[in-house]
Write a structure and sequence with these properties.
Layout: H1 8-12, H2 20-23, E1 37-38, E2 45-51, E3 62-67, E4 78-83, E5 90-95, E6 101-106, E7 112-116, E8 125-130, H3 133-137, E9 139-148, E10 151-159, E11 168-173, E12 178-183, E13 188-189, E14 192-193, E15 201-204, E16 209-212, H4 218-221, H5 225-229, H6 232-235, E17 241-246, E18 251-257, E19 262-268, E20 275-280, E21 285-291, E22 297-304, E23 314-319, E24 325-330, E25 335-340, E26 348-354, E27 362-364, E28 370-374, E29 391-397, E30 402-409, E31 417-424, E32 431-432
Antiparallel strand pairs: 1-32, 2-3, 2-31, 3-4, 5-6, 6-7, 7-8, 9-10, 10-11, 11-12, 13-14, 15-16, 16-17, 17-18, 19-20, 20-21, 21-22, 23-24, 24-25, 25-26, 27-28, 28-29, 29-30
């Protein structure tokens, strides 16, 4: 690894100023455990990072705000949007630890946009654009924005040398200053060869470990999906590993073989749990990463999602606050699945519903009663023609079935392709995480 100017002391000294007990709770079930505020009641808004479409509205990537409070006069309506002045393949975003700012990235142009969502969450403002990620790191395609105290850890998908999948992690402070970079390992660690690919980040502070997953590089994700699938060489260039890191030192300590592009990672962080799950997109498998009785971390396949022969393409997943359930969206067949995780060694699918012609991201409220789904995967991987639905759809969940509550047609509204979602609430609705106990999980 190179340019490791800020390892343990600079990067993570602040992180471990928080006690493990305080830091080990998830935020609306899936975000960084270092987020300082939770919305445990009714969320007021959903912010949607949206890909611009040429000829549709202003054609620009934008942050769209939807009112989701059923007691509001504008419930289920778009109430605000902020365009960034261009198209850069808007994809994922993440809060700073104080939840006052959203960092949102472009997979194509590698720009990072910082929105003020704390001053007035109903009307976010673009306050900063960061353009130096490739210059500082050699990485492109900022994907995951993961809060640390006073910093953002950014997981990237590619590099500026060959646009392949070998990449790394970047650290910025909350003011937008570059701090450090960490290459994802390509060497063998233990019995498994690293591939250097990146995608998601997930931290378990109590165990002092971090997991990263792997997808593919820019020369695949910015290419038409059909062309990629039909190119045998391109199909060789998807990630097949996950990496376990020492959180304090930012040193990789183990590489797991997880074939088929393991994507989103979700930790179960309640006391006594300390395990994580991921879904492999190309093999339609759920994998469990868990520490065994001897203190060794293991990764194993534990469940199948749909019919792998039909390539349903599992994409986003969302774990419930108590880690007893897992939502999985499969893009190609437009299905939302629910798995019982009461026994994480043997997840069982107990419910599924066709929720669109194509579905990607899924987010749930802390109490698990509200589910939000968006449609877009990537601009060149979305379906075409009548199947190219672009929407946010909201549902209620009673533990047995999903019931539609409202929908926003992003094409009709001339907004674009909706991708990642984050919740926001009026100040009175937010509850400080550090004042709440695990009994609320």
């Amino acid at each position: 690894m190179h340019d490791r100017r800020a390892p343990a002391a600079l990067l993570l000294g602040a992180c471990f100023g928080l006690s493990f007990a305080a830091a080990a709770y998830a935020d609306e079930t899936c975000n960084s455990p270092y987020i300082s505020n939770l919305i445990k009641g009714q969320e007021d808004y959903v912010q949607v990072w949206t890909l611009g479409v040429e000829g549709l509205g202003d054609g620009s990537d934008k942050l769209v705000t939807i009112d989701v409070n059923p007691h509001s006069k504008t419930y289920g309506k778009v109430i605000h949007s902020v365009s960034v002045g261009g198209r850069g393949e808007a994809h994922h975003m993440g809060f700073t630890d104080d939840r006052k700012y959203l960092w949102a990235g472009g997979l194509d142009d590698s720009k990072i946009y910082v929105f003020d969502v704390g001053t007035n969450p109903a009307k976010p403002r673009l306050i900063r654009t960061i353009t130096n990620l490739p210059e500082k790191t050699g990485y492109v395609g900022p994907h995951t924005f993961y809060a640390l105290p006073g910093r953002l850890l950014i997981g990237n998908l590619s590099n500026d040398r060959d646009y392949g999948g070998v990449t790394g992690l970047a650290v910025y402070n909350n003011k937008g200053g570059f701090v450090a970079k960490y290459d994802i390992p390509i060497a063998a660690i233990g019995a498994v060869q690293g591939d250097g690919y990146g995608y998601d980040i997930a931290i378990n502070p109590a165990k002092n470990v971090m997991l990263t997953s792997s997808f593919t590089g820019r020369k695949n994700y910015m290419r038409e999906m059909g062309a990629v699938v039909q190119d045998p060489e391109a199909m060789k260039h998807f990630g097949n590993t996950m990496v376990l890191w020492n959180l304090k030192t930012m040193q990789p300590i183990q590489v797991f073989s997880v074939p088929g592009a393991p994507l989103e990672i979700r930790w179960a962080l309640a006391p006594g749990q300390n395990w994580a799950v991921t879904a492999a997109a190309l093999t339609s498998k759920i994998w469990l990463i868990r520490e065994d009785a001897a203190g060794h971390w293991q990764a194993k396949e534990v469940a199948t999602i749909g019919d792998p022969a039909k390539i349903p393409l599992p994409v986003d997943i969302s774990i419930t606050a108590d880690a007893k359930g897992l939502w999985v969206n499969t893009f190609m067949d437009g299905t939302t699945h629910y798995f019982d995780l009461s026994d994480p060694e043997h997840p069982k699918e107990t419910y599924h519903l066709h929720t669109g012609t194509q579905v990607n991201m899924i987010s749930e409220s802390w109490d698990g009663k509200r589910i939000y789904i968006t449609s877009s995967l990537l601009s060149k991987w979305d379906k075409t023609g009548a199947d190219n639905e672009q929407f946010l759809r909201a549902f209620s969940w009673d533990g047995h079935a999903l019931t539609p509550t409202f929908a926003v047609d992003f094409t009709k509204e001339k907004l674009g392709r909706p991708h990642h979602m984050k919740f926001a609430a009026k100040a009175a609705q937010q509850v400080a995480m550090l004042s709440k106990g695990v009994s609320e999980r």
